[in-house]
Amino acid sequence: MGVIRTIAGRELQSYFATPLAYVFIVIFLALTGLFTFYLGGFYERGQADLSPFFNFHPWLYLFLVPAIAMRLWAEERKSGSVELLMTLPVTLWQAVVAKFLAAWLFIAVALVLTFPIWITVNYLGDPDNGVIVAAYIGSLLMADGFLAIGSCISAANRNQVVAFIITVVICFVFMLAGFPLVLDLFSAWLPGALLDAVASLSFLTHFTAISKGVLDVRDVLYFLLVIGVWLVATTIVLDLRKAD
Amino acid sequence: MIRADGLVKTFGSRTAVDGISFAVAPGEVLGFLGPNGAGKTTTMRMLAGFVPPTAGRAEICGHDIGEAPVAAKQKLGYLPEGAPSYGEMTPGDFLAFIGRIRGLSGANLSRRLADVTGRLQLGDVLHQPIETLSKGFRRRVGLAQAILHDPPVLILDEPTDGLDPNQKHEVRELIQAMAPGKVIVISTHILEEVDAVCTRAIIIANGRIVADEQPATLIHRSRFHGAVTVRLTRSADLPAVAADLAALAGVRTVETDPHEFAVTAFPREGERLLTTVSSLATERRWPVEDLRLEAGRLDEVFRAITTGPAPAGGA
Fold it and tell me: ipTM score here?
């Protein structure tokens, strides 16, 4: 665990050594606020809950999480530091998990910094704080799912911009897998059972379920599985392409 | 101890390394030489466990790099080509990070950090981001990183590239000071370096070992080895001198260099020319500016071996 902590610590430090961390946090907080109050109609709804706040998280993550994830491996490969890291007494999965954890922790910090909205809603009314906690957990899990996808795409590309764009597209497909926009792509040639399988991969469906306050094991498991699968894929991709 | 056993690496249809085997014992400083693209870096990457070989295996201190990579890498200090590091970090933070990954901590870590920053004279730049440092400093940070845990095996890919002559000299002294008891492999394309620090030289060309000898023996392969060069003043009659030298019994052939105003006499097998040439010069009253016995020219051996029609020797 010591090695993972050391790598994750270094990684997290590097976020704050550049403007990246500050830009991300400021934009994330500004946009969540903007969306909640203007597009979500936080006041106008007259309800003491945070659904106008959480409803926009998937859309924010769609662009902000790939921006964090794109540099995870692409930068190391481009600068050559991946050769240094991979010749230290570290296993591949330790490095993959450590970098993922650093990005995860960073997004968690950004999410925690939205606490004023939670204070606000408690000040204005009497919300169900259980639902809010569940929604926060669901939001973080969904961000991690995007992050794991981004980690794998970043490992496959030396170019960060390419990694970003591909990640956004894949995240978009995963997010809306249960909706006609994506399903129609598959319905023509996939049998019904597989079509249901594709539909069940939808981030949005699972997130919406959690954010309503139903912390179902299956929804949580789904996100954990997505994270696990994409991190394993990251390891495989890195093993194949690290020296290219 | 490093052992490479039939290492092969192919990239698509191109064979970068084509069956390289050697073993290096403690106390040896092995110089890895070869033209650019000969497979030096790929071989070192396979030894360090960064690139998996297509065939063959490598061992660091008895640990197979493919089967027990972490155990092998613990015994290894490695400077990758170009000395990559994390540019936004300061050398102090960077070296502390490497130290912690290497399992150093507390007083032990501070002691090792003080030792390497002293040896590589990084004291003045410890708190400056690495990306703002000169190439020479960055290379030294990379070297510091490689020797931080005092490993028994060091693999250094072009350790003196980008350094000025003084820094080169210091790094060579550093390598020589560390050499006893350690296995050191360096790659370089600077031939004087091999002569200066290596106890053994391996030349590779097109992915194969074409020579594996002590630098001194390698120099003996030079056609200049044992030749005598006479440099004359401009007033001398160069063709006459050349003819006189060619007439000597021990001389196989002569070459004149009109730019340098010099004549080089090459000896027949087993002949020594210096005394005969110098007495002839005195006897004929040649206006000699310089008379020297050639030790051999490494660059010429290098060229002959790496561009020659058939690979000589092997391992």
Answer: 0.86
